[in-house]
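Researcher: Good morning. I'm working through a list of sequences from a screen, and I'd like to move beyond sequence-only analysis. For each chain I'm collecting a predicted structure so we can compare shapes side by side. This is the next one on the list. No need for commentary yet; just the structure.
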Amino acid sequence: MAGAGAGLAVVLILAGIGWLGGMFDGTEPTAAAPDTCVWTPQNATTNTDLKDVGTPPTKDLPTAGTRPMTITTNQGTPITVSLDLTRSPCGSESLTYLAGKQFYNNTECTEITADGALRCGDPKGTGLGGPTYSVYSENTPTPPDPSASASPDTHLPLYPKGTVALIGNPPGTNGSQFLVFFKDFTPPSPQYSIVGTVTGGMDTLTKISKIPTVDNGSGSKVKPKDKVLVQSLTVGDVAGDTAPSAAPSASSQS
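Model: Good morning. Structure tokens for this chain:
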């Protein structure tokens, strides 16, 4: 009888816990919302050029619509960009977060690349700097299949003039650095994740593209002879459809 009484007590306790947890109130337990974005930690001990400003949020982020981004330099009219939240929600969120931390203010653009792009976003100016996290590539273009029949899209550049793309080393480990293309570019193996498009200030970008380059100290003649300084970088509010959607699939996180 003592054993039966103890067993009954256990059943009653478990039932009480279940009642408190909503087992008998007719409602289903609420599942935790999935992460929209994942931020991979980077080691600031092994790379002293990294700057720790925390990490962006991971949940309930906009995955549709656009955000306006403004890059004000010492070279003329501000360069305005439309960030694509549909194709690059996490890259856009990273730029938005870092802009809010004034991460880009008073930083040098380190390269005018042979590919026809201005490279900016390194707070240390070494080409190795960034935040203490990285974000996967979401919107890397796919080269046309050479075996497929010719189509009107076959000869379109993969990175048209005015494209803004994230750059990471190795590819897919994007941090704060980005490229702004001032001419069309089609590499054999695309590696840069497209995050937006220039909407204004192309005159400034054209002016910058004509600046002579010198050795960057590593044997590459890519450093602007005249300093190109990002005085400020800001990101505005979301425009268009702002409703969060499901997290990007694993296949898009490449």
